[in-house]
Amino acid sequence: MxxxxxxxxxxxxxxxxxxxxxxxxxxxxxxxxxxFGPAGGTTSGPSQPLTTxxxxxxxxxxxxxxxxxxxxxxxxxxxxxxxNASELAIKFVETNPNIGENITVLLKDTxxxxxxxxxxxxxxxxxxxxxxxxPLRADQVTxxxxxxxxxxxxxxxxxxxxxxxxxxxYLLNILPESEVRRSMGYAKRLGKKAFAGIFPTTDFGxxxxxxxxxxAADLGLNARAVYNxxxxxxxxxxxxxxxPMLQAGQVDALFIPDRATAPSFANLLNEAGIPPGKVQLIGxxxxxxxxxxxxxxxxxxxxxxxxxxxxxxxxxxxxxxxYGSAPHKFATIAYTATILANAGSLANGTPKYxxxxxxxxxxxxxxxxxxxxxxxGRSEYALVIKQVSIGAAxxxxxxxx
Length: 401
Fold this sequence. Notes:
Blueprint: H1 18-23, E1 55-56, E2 61-67, H2 73-95, E3 103-109, H3 114-126, E4 131-133, H4 138-151, E5 155-157, E6 169-171, H5 176-189, E7 194-200, H6 203-219, E8 222-229, H7 232-247, E9 253-255, H8 262-271, E10 280-282, H9 291-294, E11 303-306, H10 310-323, H11 331-342, H12 344-347, H13 355-358, E12 364-366, E13 369-373, E14 379-381, E15 383-389, E16 392-400
Parallel strand pairs: 2-3, 2-4, 4-5, 5-6, 7-8, 7-9, 9-10
Antiparallel strand pairs: 1-3, 11-15, 12-13, 13-14, 15-16
Helix pairs in contact: 2-11, 3-4, 5-6
């Protein structure tokens, strides 16, 4: 019987017998399922450099896990939770006789700066790692990618900023391109035809705007208007310009992804005579679980994409039992990344962690559901659609790519 850490997660998409489900914690979603190799990986082979810092696992292939464990307390809290989840993933591998122990994870502290991430990556590369997992922030992923590419080592970073992605530097997180396409596709199936978007004048806002434009083009939707704002005055001006189009039905879906300002925009629209339900409001995955979003009456009926919570809920009891608290939402990402790194066809391939294997179009089934890496380093996630009601949000549609 499997431990709770592995129950009901990370299996292949094809119909398989219960024995294979128990063994295949993470498998390729194609005709060729990932093999974990023989149980009980060997540590024989050429001698390797001595390592520094914490490590877990007994496999012969070294994998670095770069996370913020010091510096900014908020970031360090996220990093610690992700490191704990990675260790639980290794524990699952070690206690499952059907899974080979292929990797040893070397945990490195990046702090909160790109310089700290670069230093951590250089140390890990000097210790002979074949893959780098992390870091968390986009600027750190970019910095690590530069030194890792020079060494010919792939990176699976955890940023949700697609600007940090590039060939060989893959992002395991929900990216704007993935979530915008998912939510706009759902709105299209609801019959919405004319879209507008409001984006903050920030680097990430520009990425979201680009994702909005691309999704509209890919889905054959009419993007009637795009607005930007950097202040309350500009936000009010946007609503003043947009309200007549909404009243006239010229726009029937409005994308307002910025979590911090979405309640304000909803209230401004209400003040302008646009009641809830007049236009389909669409948010981002960043909305998920935010109390301000859930308790804003004017956002009732709004939809947003989100990660399927099944995997997180499966991890929760074991994590709480070991660490005495609930894991951060990103803990499932670190768990998935660790199991992916341990897959025998990747860790023991020639070369190790080959790009062609990492970017199989059918993808993988991870702790948070189905995902795949694109050749340009971006990823796509199977996301659910949630709908806001007062004080809560419920799943309106199950996970889809």
